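Friendly challenge for the regulars: who can give me the structure tokens for this chain first? No prize, just bragging rights.
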Amino acid sequence: MKNKAMMDAVKWSDEAEAAMRKVPFFVRKRARARVEAHAAQKGRKTVKLDDVHEVKQGYLENMEKEVLGYRIESCFGPQGCRNRCTHDEDLPALLESLLAGKNLLDFLKNTVEGPLKFHHEFCVALADCPNACSRPQIKDIGIIGAAVPEVTGETCSMCGQCVGVCKEGAIRIDETRQMPEIDRIKCLDCGQCAEVCPTETLRVSRRAYKILLGGKLGRHPRLAEPLPGCYDKEKVFDIVSRCVDFYVQHSRDGKRFAQLYAESRDALMEELAGYLRQT
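First reply, four minutes later:
Bragging rights claimed.
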């Protein structure tokens, strides 16, 4: 079956591949599938440059019809990432329902001059671990899974596996106390130290999420800023809802959330103060 799938796989010419690499990464997978479907409709087993150009033209002409007003991006999640921190499969569906109910498409139609494009959409990215494959740092709202480690009272075997697995250098062994110590400033809460600890001297105390706000690319890129602490699924839902409401209430003339966040950060923090105090 595997060999047959490889034989049936669509091939790409070098020119078509080069053209596809110029497509923005956040729509590249979708665009690639469309080009392959377009080539298949023409009876081709190899995608050529003209297929890419034809799909691109149709894409530009019909983009506004496909804009939803919001976009949710995620990384591998339960389908294959061994670094998952949260083991929670409900959050993407909850956020999809939340954003669909905010009627962002009508909001954009009323506030953006000219045809809508995908970059006008409010974008939320979910990553299951600090590797952040879905690039939450450059989205309106980024959500990163966290597995917060803690030191227990169990006797440490001094094996050093926790030190070896930590890519941040956030774990050291106190030779006097014969116990591991966690540098909370360096720690990214991936939980891998607890995963390899054979004595449960280190364990995951909490599985939750970190939230980043106000990231974007474009002519004036900026990285999203993290909110302090970690949040459970319900608080993530509420914070995202508050942020979207703030965006709708204050954005004018197509102003993006990242720009609004940069200009009105203090006002938004006041809106979120009740949630931040509970972390």
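Confidence is low (pLDDT under 50) at residues 1-7. The first helix runs from residue 2 to 8. Your move, everyone else.
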